[in-house]
Structure prediction request, 463 residues.
Amino acid sequence: MALRSGPLARLLLPGRTLVQRFAYLFLLLGAVGLMVVGKADVVLVERLRVTVIDATAPILDFLSHPAAKAADAIEDVRQLWDLRQEMTRLQQENERLLRWQQSARQLEAENVRLRELLNVVAEPGQRFMTVRIIADTGGAFARSLLVNAGLRDGVRKGQVAMTAQGMVGRVAEVGERQARVLLITDLNSRIPVMIESSRERAMLTGDNNLRPRLQYLGTNVRIEVGDRIVTSGHGGAFPPGLSIGVVTTATDWEARVQPFVDLNRLEYLRLVDFQLDGIILETDRSLARPPGRR
Amino acid sequence: MAGMFLGRWLAGLRRLTPIASCFVMVLLGVMPHGLPHFPTIAPDLTMMAVFYWAIYRPDLLPKWSLILVGLFQDLLSGNLIGLNVAILLIVHYVGLSQRRTFIGKPFVVAWLGFMVLALGTGVFYWLTLAAMSGTITFTHAVLFQYVLTFASFPLMSWLLVRAHRYVVG
Prediction:
């Protein structure tokens, strides 16, 4: 109040109106500054994100329950329509799977025998946990999910998010009680993959489309619609052989992959720890800096 | 005495409705719905709330609050940090500077205004992201999101009008 009428206020008035007039511009420039800083200091932004996500965890968790119920109800009604068709399809599939199971058992037994014969080094074990999705963030420009498990549950950065059908993404940020999973369709997702039949390598890059792109294929690589794409294991971030999807577009200038998992209908995920160390962690990055700049 | 204090406290609380509604919109925006294709094309609800309050009660939605709301949205969604802050500031500026155009006019005028504004911010969003990530990608989801955003504006406005009338007073 005193500021508005006193002599000091009269002195400050021109400055105040100037600030008022340009307030939007200043704030807007501030926002642009934030974008640049956010792009440069990834570690700081990640810490901020984790803090905010942890703080909102209880609310998001609470909100996601009725949302999931409503989604289930809609799905139930939808499924009633094609119940009979679905049953025939499942019976056929079951028959086919039983045959597969038979051959899988035989192959497993054979595999064990051959490993024993060759003295193969055992692969590191894997642990997994099932988590529920509590928020679907992003929108048209980014694709990620929040799940209801974090550091205290054993979630670590770099773990692979999967469903029974295949890979969904990887854990990108971990809070105390929540974690963010970056989907394979996100703009920032890069996964080393290979064509399952020919073992040709490529990079699966997300661009926010439902079907991510295959890039950096060799020049004489033949790729066809229907080819299955699996992780290649190069770079050490993911184990080789995880199913990802099937090629749906294969032209001279573009190849796209339809993921096996329907990324729009996810409710639960499995986070798998393959105990690999290909993901650079925060601590490693600070260690990698030259000593003078810490 | 205590009653008066409580009444004043409640009145103060009611004046926080616009800011609170913006935060609620952010949370609603990230709620998992399980509807096919919906997350990619979910309408930008926060933008609507900011536009509405900038026109009808700008005194209760100060500029600084937009920084909080925008940051919250950016941090929660994992998007480029600061991007939604900039968008909300633009929306607030346009709403506030053009409020005479919208106040007292039929609803369609505000709707049309929002349609143009959403197109502008959509282009801004896309260009900034392209500049910051160094790649230009265009998905149909962007178009659908735009259509859904301005198509759901009447429903959201209806809810905001109710909040305005009965809560803020």
